[in-house]
Amino acid sequence: MAVSSSRSSSAKRNSVVWVVYILRCSDGTLYTGYTNDIEARLKKHNAGKGAKYTRSRLPTVVCYTSRWGSKSLAMRCEADIKKKTRAQKLALIEDRDEWGYGD
């Protein structure tokens, strides 16, 4: 029985969709993160319980998302976006196809 339980939990993990997101903060700055539950994460950010960066810049609004099949891919995408300049991030938000990301 433990084997079938392990298989079902493994299948469940594989069906999780990871989301990389960019928030626009109230002061106009951008914050990039990743999660497996974008709605819950946005609520945490806007309740002041998310990232330290966003706590003093409320409210936040999601302006970009991209979906990934694994946490490691989402983390790579997040790291790549964080290396971009503000202008490049704004271009990404406007034209997702330019970078090959997006829903």
Automatic annotation (TrEMBL):
CDD domains referenced in this protein's UniProt entry, alphabetically: GIY-YIG_UPF0213
UniProt-listed PROSITE patterns: GIY_YIG (PS50164)
Pfam family, one: GIY-YIG
Residues covered by the GIY-YIG domain: 16-91
Name of the protein in question: GIY-YIG domain-containing protein
The organism of origin for this protein: marine sediment metagenome
Lineage: unclassified sequences, metagenomes, ecological metagenomes
